[in-house]
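Researcher: I'd like a candidate sequence for this fold, 466 residues long. If you have to choose between options at a position, lean toward the conservative one.
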């Protein structure tokens, strides 16, 4: 056995025909970039039409090319297309088939173009459309949250800091906090779409072309606002893909927090919500259990999206301009993140719409833990003119007294309270229940039901033009 053969056995085992097969396997992207087939054909149709309109190819060739490309589109959609790894990627697979179908005219399609601007335009189109879908999905989720918030604008629950009961809020207000977060995600999506709305087609390999092409025509035909302004940048950057992943990571992070709260709320210990059977599962061994699997998976899948963001940032980091093959690694991350995010938003929308709220349990918990202590202190400041720091001290003593009697603040007698500060009157009881506490928080953006309803009206209106 020669040296060479022995070392080949070390690393070539899986690859029947040696180094060439390994090269093909690492180089080919057709296994995943076939997802871009519709954008690739659309880009080629627009390019060929522009070449003919600019007198660079004949009208007859353009017609043949268009006819051939439309045939290929149908073949791929019908699952009849033979993808070949030898042809590397979607661009060469389509072009080779075009040559089979229409002969030499196929060779004119790649005039004034390179795979570098071709892949850039295909992928931008794909990401841009995916973001438009994400925007619609977010709108549906926000709609579901607005419905829940509307039903529960006055449903009292404990508000938390450090996951310790802090002050009473309404469930509607809590839902509206997520509306604000997902609303910002929606604007981030819209902003990102605006930024990527430029066509790189016509940048060619990296330097532009000597052919008299019309980049504005192809940009418009493909639904872009305008052509990109620098041919090197056009084939070099993937910041639109990074932005998709960044926006997706933030949205996923928001989703994971709501998911975690649903997990907590649906425990028997909290019992704030009951998930529908469609979004929970039973245990195969413990008959009493109902597990919030969908929420747990939303929480977990966030890790995948965040991971894809870091992955692509790392691929792009330190790359010299312009195109390098490294950039072929942009696609799987984005495709997987897109599919994952779609599923996460859909699952969350379903869970939010279907979940049953246990207002009784929320109210009971809202009253526990002296959650209206701040209301007592505020009352002392407002009515007796005590400085807040002193009021805080008096309230602390009231809590200690209530604790020693094992009752809530509202169950202390007026005499008890007056022993702490003689200026206290019976009016104090108007702020000591959780219900009165939330009703009193009418500051803009506060938790009073009237304010929650105002914000719901605002968002319903805003969403119409989103
Ligand atoms: N499959 C390649 C990619 O996704 C297409 C561009 C190839 N360009 C090149 N110069 N090899 O990046």
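Model: Candidate sequence:
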């Amino acid at each position: 056995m020669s040296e060479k053969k022995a070392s080949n056995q070390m690393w070539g085992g899986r690859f029947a025909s040696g180094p060439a097969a390994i090269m093909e396997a690492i180089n080919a992207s057709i296994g995943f970039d076939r997802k871009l087939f519709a954008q690739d054909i659309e880009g080629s149709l627009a390019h060929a039409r522009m070449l003919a309109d600019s007198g660079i190819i004949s009208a007859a060739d353009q017609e043949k090319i268009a006819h051939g490309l439309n045939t290929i589109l149908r073949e791929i959609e019908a699952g009849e297309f033979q993808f070949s790894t030898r042809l590397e990627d979607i661009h060469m697979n389509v072009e080779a088939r075009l040559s089979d179908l229409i002969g030499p005219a196929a060779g004119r399609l790649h005039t004034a173009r390179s795979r570098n601007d071709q892949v850039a335009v295909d992928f931008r189109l794909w990401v841009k459309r995916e973001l438009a879908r994400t925007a619609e999905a977010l709108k549906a989720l926000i709609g579901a949250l607005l419905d829940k918030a509307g039903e529960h604008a006055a449903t009292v629950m404990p508000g938390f800091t450090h996951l310790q009961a802090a002050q009473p809020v309404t469930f509607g207000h809590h839902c509206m906090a997520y509306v604000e977060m997902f609303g910002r995600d929606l604007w981030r999506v819209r902003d990102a779409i605006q930024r990527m709305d430029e066509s790189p087609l016509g940048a060619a390999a990296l330097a532009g072309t000597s052919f008299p092409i019309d980049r504005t025509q192809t940009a418009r035909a493909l639904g872009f606002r305008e052509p990109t302004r620098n041919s090197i940048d056009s084939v070099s950057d993937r910041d639109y893909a990074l932005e998709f992943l960044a926006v997706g990571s933030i949205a996923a992070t928001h989703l994971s927090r709501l998911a975690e709260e649903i997990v907590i709320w649906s425990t028997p210990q909290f019992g704030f919500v009951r998930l529908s059977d469609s979004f929970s599962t039973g245990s195969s061994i413990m008959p009493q259990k109902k597990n919030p699997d969908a929420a747990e998976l939303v929480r977990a899948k966030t890790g995948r999206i965040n991971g894809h963001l870091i992955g692509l940032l790392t691929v792009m980091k330190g790359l010299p301009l312009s195109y390098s093959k490294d950039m072929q690694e942009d696609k799987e991350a984005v495709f997987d993140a897109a599919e994952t995010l779609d599923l996460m938003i859909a699952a969350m929308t379903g869970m939010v719409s279907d979940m049953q709220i246990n207002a009784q349990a929320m109210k009971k918990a809202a009253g526990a833990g002296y959650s209206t202590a701040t209301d007592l202190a505020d009352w002392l400041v407002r009515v007796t003119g005590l400085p807040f720091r002193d009021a805080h001290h008096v309230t602390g003593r009231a809590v200690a007294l209530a604790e020693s009697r094992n009752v809530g603040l509202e169950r202390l007698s007026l005499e008890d309270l007056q022993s702490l500060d003689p200026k206290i009157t019976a009016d104090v009881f108007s702020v000591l229940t959780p219900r009165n506490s939330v009703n009193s928080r009418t500051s803009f953006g506060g938790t009073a039901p009237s304010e929650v309803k105002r914000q719901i009206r605002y968002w319903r209106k805003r969403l119409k033009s989103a």
